[in-house]
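Below sits the subject:

***
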Amino acid sequence: MPPGRVPLALPRAMRLVRFQPPGGAEPRLGLEEEEGGGLVDLSGAEPSLPRSMRAFLETGEHGLARVPRALASGQHRLPRAGARLLAPISDPEKVICVGLNYRDHCLEQDVKVPKEPLIFSKFPSAIVGPFDDIVHPAESSEVDWEVELAAVIGKMGRHIQESAALEHVVGFTVANDVSARDWQMRRNGRQWLLGKTFDTFCPLGPAIVTKDSVTGWGGMGREGEPRLAPTSSVGSPRCPPW
């Protein structure tokens, strides 16, 4: 999900969030001190910083260099329970998705592993926060969901070598790929777009975890309440790069 076109080199491991403080005030930019922990109000500590995540990331090193100063002040902290966490980025330039992106999923669907990535997209208008309701559209009787790892892209590029791919990644967040399967598979000429991009069909967050925070790529995964297997990880057999 490309938020902008400015190269980024993050100074430290961070969990970047957007939140709405108590009382329904304007959304603010923040840091989650640890997973499930308290928040640092970056917008309060550094009022000149942009309030949107995309605009903040587009400031590049200039904006990011001010984050340690906000942390060092020891002020503008609030408990997570008192804030509403929003989608960490709500206005990306693109939301690019890859279908059938690991072999186990292909086996689950009883389809061949694709020779090239199966690319589809979602409109940014489908994005909602991690704890917002997903609206079941009246037009569909087959709403489904899949937990996905989302990479937030911060450096523009084309014809990128696989070995250099992570140089273009700011960090990662959690995405819920919600689908209206009847619209995806049997309507609209079997083009996926409409079945994938109803309003609220792309919950994101709560945090963008910068890539400096991640170690052991092969074991990175998710745990929760799956329907088929207890865990999935990036170490699972993937489909070929393109």
Remarks:
- Confidence is low (pLDDT under 50) at residues 4-11, 225-231.
- The chain has seven helices and 14 strands.
- The first helix runs from residue 42 to 45.
- The two ends are 17 Å apart (CA to CA).
